[in-house]
UniProtKB/TrEMBL annotation:
Residue ranges occupied by any Aldehyde oxidase/xanthine dehydrogenase a/b hammerhead domain in the UniProt entry: 30-143
Pfam families, per the entry: Ald_Xan_dh_C, MoCoBD_1, MoCoBD_2
Protein keywords: Molybdenum, Oxidoreductase
Native source species: Teichococcus wenyumeiae
Record InterPro entries: Ald_Oxase/Xan_DH_a/b, Ald_Oxase/Xan_DH_a/b_sf, Ald_Oxase/xanthine_DH-like, AldOxase/xan_DH_MoCoBD1, AldOxase/xan_DH_MoCoBD2, AldOxase/xan_DH_Mopterin-bd_sf
GO molecular function, one term: iron ion binding
Protein name: Xanthine dehydrogenase family protein molybdopterin-binding subunit
Transmembrane segments: none
Lineage: Bacteria, Pseudomonadati, Pseudomonadota, Alphaproteobacteria, Acetobacterales
Oxidoreductase as UniProt keyword: yes
């Protein structure tokens, strides 16, 4: 990171490195946030989606006559009405993928419970519900398959005539011959069958959208919760509406969580835009929680055989993952990414594993589509490796800690060309591990275990080392606007859906230009104001928008130096800039006390007349940051927990996490991001179970049957930073949004297996609910 950006706590209260509270919080805590469902537009109509009650069947017809007679109903639409629009499909190229084209509404078959087959528009939400209940589909049920491995079996129900064996991709990466030779010559091989359980995303805010159409201009407007309006606009306009990009505006206000689920387009959005065009009025739809369980894209869902080959000293020779990946009934926007490239790039973790092979069969099933969920392959890859290490250490009689130390990439090996294809720029992995063990009082465990045993409890401890390859930042806008009210607005194409971008982005701008912190605003959610935008996902936002702000700031300095030279009647070469001057960034004549602050220069340019041609008339900048390589956040989680053998209930005693997130712009917010990821990891590990009946009905389709973590279920977390600045972006940051999951999954499950080892348990799958834990104990005891 350039010296000019280094934090100076004594001078920059709101600069990089300071724990500045989120600017968004006062508005949100006072209930003044504006979410999509808060919108009430003049003349607004309501939409309710009619969904298939069957998981698989021939759709012979839909009787809409009764629905059209319901008072207040103004339109009932089926697939025949939507024929002019394009299809939803995977937006991420993947070798050998048979891309499935999903229509906006099902027309020939239904393929999961919740598949949209029609929609009703009415004057009120109640009338729309009544109308939806009066729609009668004629469906002949077909056999159902909900598990990926079952979908691959001979004789399994076929979802598509042109997708034989339900297989949409047979993915392979790595040198199979060399990997096989490594396994054949290994002193020891560890093999585990692991389940990466399906997750219901459960965002705080259900999906909601409002569609508008202006007949005079032929232009659509979509208000929708998203992870980036620029990409959402382009995808919907080109692929679905089949109109030029400038004929669609996408607006996103506050968003109550997404974790990957709201990143792509959904059928409902096209339904709204079509109805708005046909009916000439805005049309609104807000899902209810039951609908969210049935129709939102789900996360995870992989069945994996993980293998690790080691030499006699416990050095890793190769890792091999063989998997079935459940795609759901259709392909999501990212398709099979998680179980293919996601596994391959992240199972390497921070170890010197020389060979990696990933083989994944991606299959369609009669379940909702699966998309990226907080980490998108990163937590999974780390989970597989850490579980293998613990099992291998036990089988070989080697300390698992020592095995990690022997295999860690050492500081003198950087830059390190990993077998995963990544090039690691730096890290201090043994130091991070040692710091975590010390903070967790690893050596005092035996005394605590004895105390637990005296109370009839089982105590276990677990390590979750992790390293994740973040998504590489793509082109990102860094726009700066100097307003007449004395404010400066950052315009960028990432999108805050709960993270709190405004504050760290403002800290970066405050650091680079000395703009007063309280005068900085942020615009992200309006596609009309963007010239580029990669959206938020893959823990890349600060790397992308932060770098765009740094580069845009440099352009502002160049413009302001020219303007200052003109205003101060000095040579441009004599103008110096101090972004940390008292009162804000200041341009002055070298060796004198004559100067102007940046905000004064911006104001004078707005008022100036007849400026020389070489002097800019504004400090405004539109800049696009090109791109940067991935970064590699890493760390170590250490968990101690207790198990009640009589009930199978798990209680956390302590949780320590040491993280290398590179330069930390706002430690308060980084710690909060880590907490959120950890809690979601705990939920997946111990609580969140999806369950389908034989005929594809979702048996855990409400919070009565699907458990998510509450405050009482999680411990306090000790957060420690061990920062090694990244060399791959101007700020030296590494990303932190998904790392909590990457460390918590293996740490929690390793601790649980350790606690149950007293009963001979060597592995237990996620989610390890109390029932599952109780059965594991009593089956072994019997």
């Amino acid at each position: 990171m350039p010296d000019s950006l280094l934090p100076d706590p004594s001078r920059l209260k709101f600069g990089i490195g300071q724990p500045v509270p989120r600017n968004e919080d006062p508005v949100l805590l006072q209930g003044r946030g504006r979410y999509t469902d808060d919108l009430q537009l003049p003349g607004q109509l309501w939409c309710v989606i009619v969904r298939s009650p069957y998981a698989h069947g021939i759709l012979k017809g839909i009787d809409t006559a009764a629905a059209k007679e319901v008072p207040g109903v103004v339109g009932v639409f089926t697939a025949a009405d939507m024929a002019e629009y394009g299809t939803l499909h995977c937006m991420m190229p993947s070798p050998g993928l048979q891309d499935i084209q999903r229509p906006v509404l099902a027309s020939d078959k239904v393929r999961f419970v919740g598949d949209p087959i029609a929609f009703v528009v009415a004057e009120t939400k109640e009338a729309a519900k009544d109308g939806a209940e009066a729609v009668f589909p004629d469906i002949d049920p077909l056999p159902v398959v909900t598990e990926a491995s079952a979908a691959a079996a001979p004789g399994a129900p076929q979802l598509y005539d042109d997708v034989p064996g339900n297989l949409v991709q047979d993915f392979h990466s790595g040198d199979a011959t060399k990997v096989a030779e490594a396994f054949a010559g290994a002193a020891h091989v560890t093999r585990l069958n692991l389940r990466n359980n399906r997750i219901v995303v459960s965002a705080m805010e259900p999906r909601s959208a409002v569609g508008e159409y202006d007949a005079a201009s032929g232009r659509y407007t979509l208000h929708v919760g998203s992870q980036g309006v620029f990409g959402m606009r382009n995808a919907i306009a080109k692929e679905l509406l089949k109109v030029p990009n400038d004929k669609l505006r996408v607006l996103t206000g506050n968003v109550g969580g997404s974790f990957g689920m709201k990143a792509g387009a959904y059928p409902e959005y096209i339904c709204l835009l079509h109805a708005a065009k046909v009916l000439g009025r805005p049309v609104k739809w807000t899902d209810e929680r039951t609908g969210s369980f049935l129709s939102d894209y789900h996360g995870r869902d992989h069945e994996v055989t993980a293998e690790l080959a080691l030499d006699a000293e416990g050095k890793f020779l190769a890792v091999r993952l063989t998997s079935f990946a459940n795609m759901g009934a259709y392909l999501s926007n990212v398709g099979p990414l998680m179980g293919t490239a996601g596994f391959g790039r992240n199972v390497q973790s921070n170890y010197t594993t020389p060979l990696i092979e990933v083989s994944t069969k991606s299959l369609v099933t009669n379940t909702p589509p699966v998309t990226a969920y907080r980490g998108a392959g990163r937590p999974e890859g780390n989970y597989f490796m850490e579980r293998l290490i613990e099992a291998a250490a036990q089988e070989m009689g080697i300390s698992a800690i020592e095995m990690r130390r022997r295999n860690h990439i050492k500081p003198d090996q950087f830059p390190y060309a990993a077998a995963s294809g990544s090039k690691y720029d730096g890290g201090e992995f043994n130091a991070v591990l040692d710091k975590a063990l010390a903070a967790a009082d690893w050596d005092g465990f035996e005394a605590r275990k004895a105390e637990s045993k005296a109370r009839g409890r089982l105590r276990g401890r677990g390590i979750g080392n992790f390293l994740e390859a973040t998504a590489p930042p793509s082109k990102e806008m860094g726009g700066l606007r100097f307003g007449e009210d004395g404010s400066v607005t950052i315009i960028t194409g990432t999108l805050d859906y709960g993270q709190g971008h405004w504050t760290p982005f403002a800290q970066v701008l405050h650091q680079t230009l000395g703009i007063p912190f309280d005068r900085i605003k942020l615009v992200q959610g309006d596609s009309d104001k963007l010239i580029a935008g990669g959206g938020t996902g893959g823990s890349k936002s600060l790397m992308a928008s932060g770098a765009a702000i740094v580069e845009a700031s440099a352009k502002v300095v160049d413009k302001a130096r020219i303007a200052a030279a003109h205003m101060l009647e000095a040579a441009e070469a004599d103008i110096e800039f101090d972004p940390h001057a008292e009162g804000g960034g200041r341009f002055s004549i070298a060796g004198t006390d004559r100067g102007l602050d940046i905000m004064t220069i911006a104001a004078r340019l707005r008022e100036a007349k007849d400026l020389p041609p070489e002097v800019p008339d504004t400090l405004d900048v539109d800049h696009v940051f090109d791109q940067a390589p991935s970064a590699f956040p890493n760390g170590c989680h250490v968990v101690e927990l207790e198990v009640d053998p009589e009930t199978g209930v798990v209680h956390f005693d302590r949780y320590v996490t040491v993280n290398d997130f590179g330069v930390i712009v706002n430690p308060l917010m980084v710690e909060g991001q880590a907490h959120g990821g950890i809690v979601q990891g705990i939920g997946q590990a111990l609580m969140e179970r999806t369950n389908y009946s034989e005929d594809g009905q979702f048996l855990s389709g409400s919070y009565s049957d699907y458990a998510v973590p509450r405050a009482v279920d999680v411990p306090s977390f000790e957060f420690i930073s061990h920062a090694v600045p990244a060399k791959t972006n101007p700020l030296g940051v590494k990303g932190c949004g998904e790392a909590g999951c990457a460390g918590s999954l293996p740490a929690v499950m390793n601790a649980l297996v350790d606690a149950l080892s007293e009963y001979g348990v060597k592995h237990i799958d996620m989610p390890a609910t109390p029932e599952v834990v109780w059965r594991a104990i009593h089956q072994q005891a019997a």
